[in-house]
Amino acid sequence: MNWITDGITAPKGFSATGIHCGIKRKNKDLTMLFSERPCSYAGVFTKNIVKAAPVNWNMELLKQKKAIQGIIINSGNANACTGRKGYEDTKTMAKVYGDKMGIDQESVLVASTGVIGQPLPMDIIHQGIDEIVKHYGNSRQHATAAAEGIMTTDTFLKEKCLQIKVDGKIITISGMAKGSGMIHPNMGTMLSFITTDASIDQETLQTLLKETISDTYNMISVDGDTSTNDMVLVLANGMASNAPIQKDTEGYAIFREAFYMLNQELAKLIVKDGEGATKFIEVTVKNMHDKEEARKMTHAVITSNLVKTAFFGEDANWGRILCALGYSGAEFDPNLVDVDYVSPAGTIKLLEQGQPIGFDEEYALEILKEKEIKVVVDCHQGEAEVTGWGCDLSYEYVKINGEYRT
Amino acid sequence: MNWITDGITAPKGFSATGIHCGIKRKNKDLTMLFSERPCSYAGVFTKNIVKAAPVNWNMELLKQKKAIQGIIINSGNANACTGRKGYEDTKTMAKVYGDKMGIDQESVLVASTGVIGQPLPMDIIHQGIDEIVKHYGNSRQHATAAAEGIMTTDTFLKEKCLQIKVDGKIITISGMAKGSGMIHPNMGTMLSFITTDASIDQETLQTLLKETISDTYNMISVDGDTSTNDMVLVLANGMASNAPIQKDTEGYAIFREAFYMLNQELAKLIVKDGEGATKFIEVTVKNMHDKEEARKMTHAVITSNLVKTAFFGEDANWGRILCALGYSGAEFDPNLVDVDYVSPAGTIKLLEQGQPIGFDEEYALEILKEKEIKVVVDCHQGEAEVTGWGCDLSYEYVKINGEYRT
Questions:
Q1: Do A405 and B223 touch (CB under 8 A)?
Q2: Cα-Cα-Cα-Cα dihedral sign, residues A272, A277, A280, A284
Q3: pTM for this structure?
Q4: Are residues A13 and A49 in the same domain?
Q5: Do A313 and B394 touch (CB under 8 A)?
Q6: How far apart are the first and last CA of chain A?
Q7: How far is B159 from chain A (nearest CA, A)?
Q8: ipTM of the complex in this document
Q9: By residue range, what is the domain housing residue A347?
Q10: Tell me, what CATH number does B346's domain have?
Q11: pLDDT tens across B160-179, in order?
């Protein structure tokens, strides 16, 4: 498995680009993705009852097991809580883009991200689609432009790419994602788009995607709010010419590991770019008697505002970790628990067998001054292990979200 | 039912005070409460698995249906996550205070609030108890001193008092409470102490307390973190000389309403003093098909960081309300929902039958500039109604909690 520095167009047969069309005042706000050949399509979507129009559209195409050839994505407007007109607008986006590319409306996925509750400016989007289809390509620059076009409050690009060899053929898997607020995925996640030239059927791909997200996107949180627009879309066009990847084969194991790693890295990038985040926090709950219980505990810690502000303040206030574990809803014995903080500056044990142990505050501060901190909770009551990723809660988060629409 | 301006010593037979003994650098940090006669005692406690030592002690006394005559309370240290020694320290506090007042150790409740995970400074507490028992009394000033002694990051006193007439006798019910962070009660709540001179047996009082909290303390949230120390303790000493209050009587109905109102007001005071809060937010979900579902929806809105920061920014970003309702876990039809904002400056409708309606941003800003704002979610799908109370999320919250221990 080789990580390579490349973007969404690295797998054979995919091209893309992103432009500024005027939904946002500045910066790119429209992205297109296109595959030469129809793709197996897998997707997972937000569990929020209030789903954005494009979420409903893409779910419908998934249900009908449509082969997909293109995705059109706008940023700056979520097309969520926009009523019946919102859904018509999504279908229009698919139609207009499909017509331009000579493909069927129902082979086009749509995604939107940005402010909730405002109608899409359809005249601007029409003009944007007219323009964007003049510029696409498969170079690294085209991929970067595409990744730029899906950003909202993100501060850096989120692209990951890797290659594996299956059946003697090189397969490339590439992804781009966006954060960075309203991040608390539940089944689906924020926008993440994965392309691959692997040959893999829709059913296998969908099963793999569902398995993968529970330990990747569903284990990150920026602010505990599950968006109306979360989705991960995967397109596989088969152009690597490998024998189709099937379950319980060596090729599947290789592909699965690579697919998992790619999605985990994208999920971590989303958290690292969490709104206002100054620190990346990895929480591992290990040696717990049950994986689902360990998952609840991990979630409680990464979503606690008090834990998050303590990390922002570089305060070794481990009591808040234990408090969050305690109200997580998991059944466990707090009297067996150890808590360690780990960073490049070192490791410090704060709690052992449920008993606080004196620690050197200066050494703790050295550890907490780092940008990436691991919290290790050893339950000493089983073998299950779960890791989740979050970030701190800063003044900047409040500022960004107090001023978002203005 | 008459509200009166008085404190915890207003009911007959109760005396109290608060002093600074040195657990905190400054401000009062030790409070005592004493009843001339043994009291019926009711209590509810945090559902956090990690319970502070005094929570365990008070639960044990409740289980044994002990009559109670005194409470000793320290602020500045939560005595939580302090292991076996923490429990011994709590018992020692009860013993030392009981000995001084000539009452049994097992008729003394204990409460602690403050930082988690540090041992109580028992030498300071011993000296403090020696000192405090020289100063108690039943004046308004004594009550105020007691309410001051339980404060941590609170910025104002939380006292409420009212009188009712039952069976021809005046009954006084009085309470004091503290907030103001780690506030997201679950069954129990933050520290709240209620005294009454009503004659009411332990079982009736306990049942009433349990009923009351689900619509009062359990419907407030400052930051979504359920504390290790939450508790509401109620003492009734019978000195109003009314015939004992029993279920399904007129007297019970009167007492119940007063008890509910008093606790609701204390709960609202806790939220109004939420850490860093600049606005008080009341959320009502009405005309829902099921009360528990309405409760989930209300909770999701009052705990959403994105909703909270939008109120801090005075931004009519109603999409975040709908988003929170959507991920609350409640089953409802978003296409029937109306959302209104109400404040002393007026009322504005933002969403009608699930469809966004254009609104005057300047008028919305006038409404949002007020300090107290109501969000009314009309589901149009039943008759259940729930109200909850929260606050905004400000820079100050981050500051307070990033620097708490330092």
A1: no
A2: negative
A3: 0.78
A4: yes
A5: no
A6: 45
A7: 26
A8: 0.74
A9: 280-402
A10: 3.10.20.340
A11: 999 999 989 999 999 998 87
